[in-house]
């Protein structure tokens, strides 16, 4: 196997290790604003967040669902409301894994 093939396989593996749902969730400005609001306010429901943002409740709800699926938020039912909050430990772990994947690529001499 040539050096280029070995390097290509190593880069492919490093990039496969990136959690694409996590990266996609952070790539949307509206979701970053939701994240900011949840950090400032603490646990909040859709109604509270929608009052602070220009998007409709249904759009905010969809963003929250994507962020929960990506492991950025947790949701818990309190009465009739679903409260969302930042999963700090999970988000930090996923962020560190992303940085590790980038480091692996850099160690292969890409830049």
How are the SSEs placed, and which strands pair?
Blueprint: H1 3-16, H2 20-26, H3 29-41, H4 46-52, H5 57-69, E1 73-78, E2 81-86, H6 88-107
Helix pairs in contact: 1-6, 2-5, 4-5
Describe this structure in words.
The chain has 111 residues and is mostly helical. The protein has one domain: Winged helix-like DNA-binding domain superfamily/Winged helix DNA-binding domain (Arc Repressor Mutant, subunit A, Orthogonal Bundle), CATH 1.10.10.10. It contains six helices and two strands, in the order H-H-H-H-H-E-E-H. Strands 1-2 form a two-stranded antiparallel ribbon. Strand 1 and strand 2 form a beta hairpin. Helix 1 packs antiparallel against helix 6 and helix 2 packs antiparallel against helix 5. The two termini are 23 Å apart. The model has no long low-confidence stretch (mean pLDDT 91).
């Amino acid at each position: 196997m040539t050096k280029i093939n070995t390097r290509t396989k190593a880069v492919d593996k490093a990039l496969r290790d990136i959690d694409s749902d996590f990266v996609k969730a952070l790539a949307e400005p509206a979701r970053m604003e939701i994240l900011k609001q949840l950090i400032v306010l603490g646990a909040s429901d859709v109604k509270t967040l929608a009052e602070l943002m220009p998007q409709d409740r249904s759009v905010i709800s969809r963003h929250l669902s994507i962020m929960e699926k990506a492991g950025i938020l947790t949701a818990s039912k309190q009465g009739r409301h679903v409260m969302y909050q930042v999963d700090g430990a999970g988000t930090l772990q996923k962020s560190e894994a992303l940085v590790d994947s980038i480091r692996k690529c850099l160690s292969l001499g890409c830049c």
